[in-house]
Amino acid sequence: MKKKVALIITIILFLTGCWDKTEVDDLAMVMAIGIDLTEKGRYEVTLQVAKPGVFGKGENGGAKEDAFVTVTNQGKTVSDAMMQFYATSPRRVYLGHNKMIIFGRRLSEKGIKDALDWIERVEGLRFSNYIFTTPNTAKEILKINYGIEKIPALAIQSNIRLRYKYIAKFTPTMNVFIDRLMSHNKVSFATNLGTEQNNLEILGTGIYKDGRLIQYLNNKQTQDIMRIYNHVKGGLILVPCKNNPKNYTSFDILDEKTTLTPEIKGKKITFHLNIEANGIIEGTQCGEKIMTKEKIHQLEKGVSKIIEKRVRSMIHFSQKELKTDILNYAELIKKKEPGEWPKFEKNWDKVFPTIETKIVVKSSIKRSSWVKDPIPNKEKNKR
Amino acid sequence: MSKKNQPVQLPYEEIIKEDDVIPKEIDVLEKILRDLFHNCSDFRLKRFKHFKSNTEYLLAWMDGMSDKTAMREHVVEGIINVEKDMLTNSNLTDGVIPIIDIKREKNFKKTIDELMTGSPILILDGTGEAIIMGLIAIESRNVTESTNENNVRGPKEAFTETLRTNGALIRKKIHTPNLKLEEKIVGKVTKTKILIVYIDGIANPSIIEEVKNRINKIDIDSVLESVYIEEFIEDNKFSVFPQIEHTEKPDKIAAALLEGRISILVDGSPTVIIVPTVFACFLQSAEDYYERYIYTSFVRVLRFTYINISLLFPSIYIATTTFHPEMIPTKLLLTIEASREGIPFPAFIEALIMEVTFEVLREAGVRLPRAIGQTISIVGALVIGQAAVQAGIVSPAMVIVVSTTAIASFSIPAYNVSFALRLLKFPIMFLAASLGFYGIMSALLILLVHLCRLKSFGVPYLSGFAPFIAEEIKDTFFRGPWWWMYNRPRIFQPKQTKRQSVKKILQNAYLKWLGEE
Amino acid sequence: MYGIIHYRQLIYLQFLVILPTALLFLPSLIAEQAKQGAWVSVLLACLIGLITAMLILWLDKKFPNKNLIEINEILFGKIGRVVAGLLITWTIVHTNSVIIREFSEFMKLSILPQTPIWMFVIIKLIIVIYAVHSGLEIIGRMADFITPIILLSILVFLLFIAQNADGLNLLPLFGTGAKGILKGSIIPSTWFSEIFLASFLLPHIKQKNKKTFSLIFSMLFITVVLLIIFTIVMAVIGVELTARLSLPIFISSSLGTTLFFEHLDIVFVSVWILGATIKIIIFSYLGIISLGQTFKMKNEKHLILPLCLLMGILSISLFSNQMDILHYIKNTFPYHFFIVSLALPALSLSVSYIRRTK
Prior knowledge:
Oligomer: heterotrimer
Structural class of chain C: mainly alpha
Number of domains of chain A: 2
Largest interface: B-C, 29 and 36 residues
CATH superfamily of chain C: Amino acid/polyamine transporter I
Helix content of chain C: over 70%
Order of helices and strands of chain A: HEEEHEEHHEHHHEEEHEEEHHHHEH
Low-confidence stretches of chain C: none
Helix content of chain A: 25-40%
Mean pLDDT of chain C: 87
């Protein structure tokens, strides 16, 4: 009996096929996906695929040779276009290591929800993918060789991770992007990639409303909007000198904290935006001593003023020009004042532009880096 | 009794029955003995005559096993001077022959058995009784340094092939009359003596009884090594895992006895086995207890890693590269992909080739004479390391995997466990190649059920881990300092558990730190 | 088949019975109804679990060392035994088939999309047969070995994904309000009321005085672990996404970026397999035991092969697709299960008081 059971088990084990088995060298590793819409309304999918065998063999692998290839196909839907790859590729198209998804302009303007649905469902694609948009076509972006890294997708990924740490957490991963799209205001952001002289450039942010691209923001504006979202980690603020407005003192933000709280009195909504920015002085062109209590205070005030101005103009832009709640106010009321929310839910679009925001910025200079004062100017030496 | 179940019987047992006594006439006796030892060139028989009483007597011994000088000086010369009436068996044993180890025996078969162990026998005409003298002088190996279990610190002596010496080596370490060395004879033909050694009052009596029962049930013609006994008395005879620990170091045996375990010594074997044994025992080496505990604890933790590596590393490599490449960091995966470019075999076959090559090399290296062994290792290094990679048969990543596995498997102190793990590696690799991580986890689960089922003399094999015993962490995962080991391990269910009466050592240390000692 | 287990092993067994599948399926199912109020739903469900545990403990006090089927025999005679026995057996066997199917579907979805379902079922059944044949003592030991590994992995897993957590996702604290919370608590209650299976394990516990402690403690322990995990998962991927995804915890496990390894989901799945297998083993074991008790069989080992085969066939044939399973879990399963887990012990207890049976 025991022998028979053992035999049956062995047979079962030995007969098991390897349904999911693929050797590594049979994979076509997709590093980035670009999705465009052609003029005829067909989906055009571009894949950036790592070229096998270029990695690892450092010495004899051709230094001039690109380590990746881009392939493009069209179809009625995204999966239809993908099917073309499956049909023609000698290797299994493998999305497990995909780093990012780029939406082309035409697709973004028409709406990306259908493409997103494919992205969510497709096997192997992880939710940790970054979402990008571009004013060009995604195909163009994916073709650029970035130089430092062998594979551009990896270069962009590393760049984004560095930005997370030092500038702002402004490139969303897939889950964040989708989560924002599902909030009440249906506004989501994607980082805007562009080209300049055959080089990659981060242009800022594209704002999606209900899956459609409605506006581009430049890098500065991106910083401001992320400030409202409490995602800013660093950045530079230039404070004009008193003696000469064309010269600046650079204030480098080391850490920043934003709190945004709604206050509701009857039908009037007020938002309190508190920003605390700490930083150091990275350089001054003013040519005067700055390490006095007064000067520091003055400088801090200047920084606060600039931040406040920028944030206020951003809020104005959102409320008055765009007339879209890109500031996430609706969600905040929903979360922090759940009892009051039903009052505003229906006519939110009318309520939103009337909301008053009280901004309090507190910035402080913690250190002045290695030197206390700048090198004195010549005129002063003469004295 | 059916023919199948009849015990082993040799021709001499038909001549001399179990209860036969020694014949009184010396002529008859001589004839029987000559017949019995026909063609035994080492058998010596000599008839002497005591002239004072005109009595003949017979001296028989095995050449090369008995001390001939002592026989001449004490036996033959002693008898010559005996007065006429004084020549009786009782007188001879009571002092005429100046030998301490001397006794009388009437049973013929027992006499022959004694003769075969090397004791000379002396038989007076007409008495029908033999005098057995313990003048055994067999050439044997001296106590030397242990060769298979090396250590830097701690005792280095090892057991020899002589049972009595081995018993003495243990006795040398534990000076108590409670140390019992019970003798038993196993093996119908070889008549091998074995010793069951335990400390009365510490070892669990029911386990001692169980050991004796199991040994009594053994019915085999020969016992040449302790593994014969081991395979008869282990609980699960179909498992790949060794369920009985063995060692050649007396200090290890002494430690085991003090934990309430029982060891079995077999004559002619320098390897001593210890029961009951749990899996954790195989992760402990004797030196763990002779080095400082902090370092040894670190080594213990390392060993758990080694075990996992030697069992799973190739399987994990196969599973990740062929089923779940998303687990590997992108750049590493790209490197692996590049290194596998052009390799014709799937990862599983590649691993199989390398693993089998390695096993063959290891086996060849162990058995061959040392001079040729070196050649093998050079050839092996070339085959595994260089040529296979350059020829494009195996990827460099696989070489790293296989060699890491091999190193890890050698760092387990008990090599019989590493045999088991290396053997199990193959089916797990197969499952990993067909079902990826799901296959690995399934294999591990089956292995876990198996290990949980195993028992060694009533002690669960995974004791300490499953069932988890919190108190034993100090000797399973780590090696606690000696002053912390208040009790003997509860795993082995000792009769008496207390080891030290001093407790509160940490508390005392704290008081000392406060200066309030 | 029987054996004696330590009370710690009982706690572990309860933990492994409830946690693995709860971890996987509950976040989405609760969040769908209760949104951010999921934690209240879990607490409510824990209350149901505690009530079940109290019923079982009460019964155990009244009829020491008797399981639910034997109690029913004392109360209602032979018919009571057979009816209760068959009811319990069918519930356990059916639930187990669902679990095996869920398990296989998850494996297919997450790591081996091409491999057919029957492959998972067969391999699982081989392990189950081997383990069940070994008996309760060995299952207890396996739980002893596996639970610390699982707890440790959960801890590491949480540490890795928690860096992406955003506390704002957890607001408002009560989500959609009382109605949603109540609705959301029905399904987790089923999971928690699985503790009634302890009725079959309690007679075999070594430390008789620890019965109450072990049941109540395991209940609270599971609740705490689930709450922590739910909270962190919701904070990481947001409530809306949690409700929309079919297996949110799996998705969130792929988000953790660590020093070296990029996607922890495979590790997560591997550890999960350990826990889920123990769950299936316990259910199979109890199904076999309860069927054996129903017909007073002397050697339950005869039942292992046929019953396991039945469960295998059921698990493959009961549902045609993933939607079916979800529909069943949402709409039918709770009411089906409550009959046995809550109603039956309550009935037995009240009858025993009415009749004043000793």
